[in-house]
Fold these 3 entries.
Entry 1:
Amino acid sequence: MRPTGKLHLGHVVGALKNWVELQERYRSFHFIADWHALTSDFADTSEIDQFRTEMMIDWLAAGLDPQKSVLFVQSAVPEHAELHLLFSMITPLGWLERVPTYKEQRDNVIDKDLGNYGFLGYPVLQAADILMYRADAVPVGEDQVPHVELTREIGRRFNSLYGQVFPEPQALLTPVPRLPGLDGRKMSKSYGNDISLSDSPETIHAKVRTMMTDPARKRRHDPGNPELCPVFSYHKIYSSRETQATVDRECRTAGIGCVECKKWMSDGLVRELSPLLERRRDYAGRRQEIGEIIEDGNRRAAQEAGETMQAVRQAMKMT
């Protein structure tokens, strides 16, 4: 994850919950991608250091265990930069220009300068991040599958030129429930429509009260369609089946209003999040321990990266 701001519910539902489950079955590596943050936020790096610490606190609060997973900071392992450089020498330009997210963000992100090599070449750095640990699987949503395929192509090209060093990692597709932002768009801090993991229960309740609902339901007595309502997306995750069934029925018949529906949802949301929020407050008061966890993760990642780079240099006859 890139340390470009506070983590929110979308990160928990879209990634962290799955990571916590996967660490029970895989030897996992998770890193704070501060070099990747520079691809779009290079002009102001003043908050990256703070965001790195806050991100690690969020990870631990969500359940990532430094005894089961390697948790580290990308820039603390300079081998990532070396492998990125070597991969950039063998990666055709056309491979990068066809990456879907490159085209999409160049067309849609108008408030940042993306006309730099770092942004065009970030999939090469991403390939180095993955192949550095000779990963067999990468947990992603469907929109990230092209990145894993590009990683496979880069690794395949390296192996064809210099001999077998890297495996071909598979995309470990993970189902991601839809969790829209407060205004119905994708949840994002930059949109100001997020519920942050650092929000208090009072703030969460206040934010939920502002949520957009079914746009066709303009008055209290108008029937609604829960499937078109962002609030109901949250009910599917954070409310009991009985509450979901009641909301679905009563919304369609105008038996309840949006205010009551939101209150039921926010009560369930806060109840489900309370253990995470409590753990986060606890970890936030243990900054020295957080630093030690990061240092230990950096050391373990660097050891693995050193072994990989030794194999890479030998294969390229650059020892």
Note: The chain is about 55% helix and 5% strand.
Entry 2:
Amino acid sequence: MTTNLLANELKLPCGAVIKNRIGKSAMSENMGSKGGNSNETLNKLYERWAKGGSGLLITGNIMIDHTALGEPRNVVFEKGHSDENLKEWTKAGTQNNTHLWAQINHPGKQSPKFLSKRPVSPSAIGLKPPLNRMFNQPRELTEKEIYDLIERYAFAAKISKENGFTGVQIHGAHGYLVSQFLSPRHNQRTDQWGGTIENRMRFVSLIYQAMRKEVGNQFPVSIKLNSADFQKGGFTKEESMTVVQHLSEQGMDLIEISGGTYEVPAMTGREKAVKESTKNREAYFLDYCEEVRKIVKTPLMLTGGFRTSKVMNDALASGACDMIGLARSIAVNPEFPNDLLSGKNVESPVKLLSTGLKFLDNIVPLEIVWYTEQLKMMGRGENPQPNMSPMKAAMNTILHIGMQGLKKVRAKEVVK
């Protein structure tokens, strides 16, 4: 490869500099300690990734309310909560001149039944079957609660900065609370928080403003946003572009592009929402990035589907995006970014998983349990096992947690 654009620095609008164009996108580790604290396993995992060469590491879900979790072992940032390990985590994850950003999130209605008897959402609209068997019907948020949530997002950003994270990311994709506010399917309010796209994006706009007030103008604030929900009556590509343009004008430092929700998980590459021609280009949402680049100058990070150094460099050369987001590739090979930076033509070994038995594939969420095992191994100081049998992962899952436990696992977010 004559020119390796992946090795170039990226200067953000706030002035911060990321040493290269490779970003580890968030994967929900679900490895926190009881009570919502970080721990030594997260330290080891992120130290491994920091040494692997990525310029940017974005954590998995960090929740803003211990009563509203996406998974039982989420880390939580909220008032009255103390986490003595946090600075050890950030020390580990910022080695090798690496940026470590906290992904701040609230699940909204995507909090499983075993965690939330009555979750909250912009409107009292449940998830469609069969997900309604795993998630309870939500109640509608009051306006007072909405403002409280905005303050919680801002507080989490403040805690992140104070404890050594070098930036924050608002999780506005994949059907979580911010995504629910943006979607006309899930947000059917008739007050200032619903109706027009201008009203529906008020929530995320005020979150950004509150965060910026807490962390100042020189600290990176970013967002992960859906290119679309790929659902009838959902958040559209045109609406997404309106939100991107608005947040860009407000001063967002980096916008990560993804897509899909629990109901239509396009971010996994398995869904019909991702056309075969798009899969062949590797990057699932590249077409969208090419369009949105025409209307904003804010740095864009594109996540989902990248597998080869050639395609990554082509995407950067085209100007469609400024950073390449990787997840599964770094879960099976933490040295993959260093391999990419070497300038050689390298390819990720990631492929869709199958036990070979369709009925078992439908029961066990392989894209969750198999990759989660890889993260846990690194958290124990071991090497990942890219050749681990999907059948072995499936059977281990069934033996360890049983069929009822599988229902809980299926409530987790899939990695990219």
Note: Confidence is low (pLDDT under 50) at residues 261-281.
Entry 3:
Amino acid sequence: MNLKSFTSTEILGFAFLIILYALGIYFANTDPIYFRNTYAREDGFVEYATAVMLFCISILSFSRLVKFWNTKPALWKLGVAGMALIFLFGAGEEISWGQRIFDIESSEYFIKNNAQHETNLHNMVVGETKINKLIFSQLLTLVLVIYLIILPILYRKYDAIKNLVDKFAVPLPRWKFTIAFLLATALINLIPSDKKWEVYELAFGVIFLLIFLNPFNKYIYEKN
């Protein structure tokens, strides 16, 4: 793998991640208060940037859906529409659907059942179980392992898996994106703050946007 194998967008994306992590690790270890209250704070640059990345993936998927609506089969459209909605949901959840931006008060239900008293699902509490810990952490971790590591291997080895992935227009990550995500996962442990997950979520957003822009099976987003 050499520099020529990277697109200009990927170079910019990875450079951004290097700067993001370098500053995050530095501030978290030298000025924890600044890291928590400024660098990775709620409604700060990192959180909004994550929402923007997820929203861009959604817009990209919707644009592909519109572009190829008359030329692609139903399962392809179902897969692309599903991914567009998933990432739109993720972007909305990240900023609590604009609640703090537009200064909207939470309903009584969310005040009672949401850990942060916000209008979103990922901070909901059922009994003593946090939805964020159960679904958005444990389940998402399993999905990421399958998607970033196991699926690329199976895709290259079995035609049945390849055909299924392509049929539903699932963008397959190139190995450089898998490596980037593994590095991001390892390096996040150098940030000794519970707010480090804000940085990790932004890394998730950037890497997944790069995957969707230039997947290994990019031909699925071209004319038949």
Note: The two ends are 29 Å apart (CA to CA).
